[in-house]
């Protein structure tokens, strides 16, 4: 099983670990694991797209280190709104004929939502998570995994993957 799927499985296990009264730590770690499952899924997909071929793991790992949470979050927020929410420099490279799959908006929204939820879970000790809230977030990521499988080879999905790494640099041109 891959790291993203293992993290997603771990998130579900942590969210359901204590049958009666879940520990706050279990719920917080479940949210964090769910976020990192989606983070690593997208970074892995992007790195494999950008560096193809066999025996290229060292280079792919270097590329993966270039992704930052903040840039990925801003990019996901932009893509969550659909084609109309994208900056002109990105809209201009998306062929109109390719369309904009609703699943991409859902994946981008899930990433953005989970990133914010992870930040709250990790740093806002005044916020009390419930099991249901945590399981809803885990299901959000499970749906994003399924949506990603539907669109992973779509042209706009590939633009999204590259934008997760380079969107801020593209703005400077």
Notes on the structure:
The chain has 173 residues and is an all-alpha fold. The protein has one domain. Helices cover 72% and strands 0% of the residues. It has eight helices and no strands. Helix 1 (3-16) packs antiparallel against helix 7 (131-151), helix 4 crosses helix 6 (102-123) and helix 6 (102-123) runs antiparallel to helix 7 (131-151). The longest helix has 27 residues, at 24-50. It is globular. 32% of the residues are buried.
Considering the chains and any ligands shown, give keywords for the structure:
173 residues; mainly alpha; 8 helices; 0% strand
Describe the structure concisely.
The chain is an all-alpha fold and 173 residues long.
- pLDDT averaged over residues: 93
Quaternary organisation of the protein chains:
single chain
- Helix tally equals 8
User: Radius of gyration, rounded?
Assistant: 17 Å
Order of helices and strands: HHHHHHHH
> Shape from CA axes?
globular
> What composes the largest sheet?
none
Beta content? under 5%
Say how many strands there are: 0
